[in-house]
Every structure is written in structure tokens, then in C-alpha cells.
Design brief:
The chain is 35% helix and 22% strand. It is globular and about 50 Å long. The termini are far apart.
Length: 257
């Protein structure tokens, strides 16, 4: 691999339990000497900041003055990154030492690809189907009520590309934002994430913008492990945030059933 820089951003908010895992994955990477790590903290009130300051001296810590949300948090790192490739990573992600090198080598060999994701597994090694189709009303209803089976499960499976044979890299519409590898220049040209989304749909929005610049691809030959929380299904506040972002997304890209 050529001696270019890779940047990675992690947005934290009360992630004292998870933050060591993702940072250790980055610091154990086979290309760790090429990676500039940015941790953007959205005013955590737990021990996240203390852990970062006491244990991880070689990261770039950006302290936000308030909780600005997921997309704006990552943008704080994207706008200052001086790299060829940028990684957007959730704090509850883990991966093996060769993942980043393999993904970047793949992007180096495919210059028409601007955004790429690996497969995503949960803690029990079950596939979480990260590639998705562009959100529609039907797909979101299906995903929310998928446990009831019937037409809802059919819509949810179609949305999550569950009938796609995940054997070789393929173009997708929507990259889930838990782990993304992107060309930094392209991200910066697009001003990163749309800051109007506090949480949810910012990754779907970014995927649509990136598709105008080149190919968006899932490479199932590699995977990360993602704990995931699905807060929109667990709390009224999470559901409210999800619905707010949904309206912003459909008002921007058009309402489609």
C-alpha cells in the first residue's frame, strides 16, 4: 500500500463501555501508522472523555460544546482531514487487523468507487444486512412491523436486500453508516453529511449524494462486528428523532411509497 494517509472519525456520546473496543481495533490495524484517528465527543456526561484523555494519547479529540448529532459530529473531522480515504465508524464497532488494509486496497484498485461498506455481523456473528435500498414509506413500514410477518416481512426483506447473494462486491443504493470507507476528497466536495439530520437517515442521504459522484458498493468479502442498539424501537425519544429525520429525508428527496 502506498504511503498515503487514512483518517477515521468516531462520534461519541456516553460511550464509555464501547469506546475501547473500536479504538483498539484501529490501533491494532495492519496500517495503524497511516491512520489519523478523530474522536468527536458530543458532550458526554459519563467517563468517555476521561478514558480518551488518560488512555489514548495519539488520537485527535474534538470536544463539541453541545450534542450536535451524528452527522455534524463526523463533519467536524471530515472538514479537517488530510487524507486520501476517510472511515466513518460507530463507537460500537470491532474488526480484525487486516480489514482496513483490505478495504483501502480494494478502493485503490477500483477508482470509480467513492463509497464502500463491508458486511456487518452482530455479536453472535449473524449477518445484519447492511446494504439497503433507498428508503420509501413502504419499506419503513415493513421494517417496523417485520415481526408480524406477511407483506411487512416481504417489504423489510426487500429493503435490506435479503434476497441478494452476498458473494461478490455489488452496487447498492444505501450504505448503513455504522462503518463506511469513502474517498475523502469526495466527502469534502459534498460537505459531508447533511447537518439537518440529528440522527437517522443521514447515512441514506449521504449515500444518495455520493452516488452522483461514483459507485457505492458493498464488499461482502470483509466484515465488521456491530453491537447496534436500534434506539428508535426502544424509546419514545428515539422514535421521535427517527420520524423527524424521516420527514426531512422525504421532503428533500421526494415522498415515495
Amino acid at each position: 500500500m502506498n504511503n498515503f494517509r487514512i483518517s477515521a472519525s468516531i462520534v461519541t456520546y456516553n460511550n464509555e463501555r464501547e469506546i475501547r473496543g473500536v479504538l483498539n481495533s484501529l490501533l491494532d490495524s495492519s496500517v495503524k501508522d497511516l491512520i489519523d484517528i478523530y474522536v468527536v465527543d458530543n458532550c458526554s456526561t459519563d467517563r468517555t472523555i476521561k478514558i480518551l484523555q488518560n488512555t489514548y494519547k495519539n488520537i485527535n479529540l474534538i470536544n463539541m460544546k453541545s450534542n450536535v448529532g451524528y452527522g455534524r459530529g463526523h463533519n467536524a473531522a471530515i472538514q479537517v482531514a488530510k487524507s486520501k480515504y476517510h472511515l466513518v465508524i460507530n463507537p460500537d464497532i470491532n474488526f480484525d487487523i487486516n480489514l482496513i488494509e483490505n478495504l483501502i486496497s480494494y478502493l485503490e484498485s477500483n477508482e470509480d468507487i467513492v463509497l464502500c461498506i463491508p458486511n456487518v455481523h452482530d455479536n453472535d456473528n449473524n449477518l445484519k444486512h447492511p446494504p439497503k435500498k433507498d428508503p420509501t414509506i413502504r419499506y419503513l413500514i415493513g421494517r417496523y412491523f417485520a415481526s408480524r410477518g406477511g407483506i411487512f416481512k416481504k417489504w423489510a426483506d426487500e429493503y435490506e436486500c435479503k434476497n441478494t447473494n452476498l458473494v461478490r462486491p455489488f452496487e447498492i443504493e444505501f450504505c448503513s453508516g455504522s462503518f463506511m470507507a469513502a474517498r475523502t476528497e469526495t466527502l469534502q466536495k459534498l460537505d459531508g453529511f447533511d447537518s439537518r439530520y440529528f440522527l437517522y437517515f443521514e447515512d441514506a442521504d449521504l449515500s444518495r449524494k455520493m452516488r452522483k459522484m461514483g459507485k457505492v458498493v458493498c464488499n461482502p468479502n470483509y466484515y465488521v462486528q456491530h453491537e447496534g442498539k436500534r434506539e428508535s424501537h426502544k424509546s419514545i425519544k428515539g422514535l421521535q428523532m427517527m420520524l423527524s429525520s424521516m420527514f426531512k429525508y422525504f421532503n428533500k428527496w421526494g415522498w415515495k411509497y
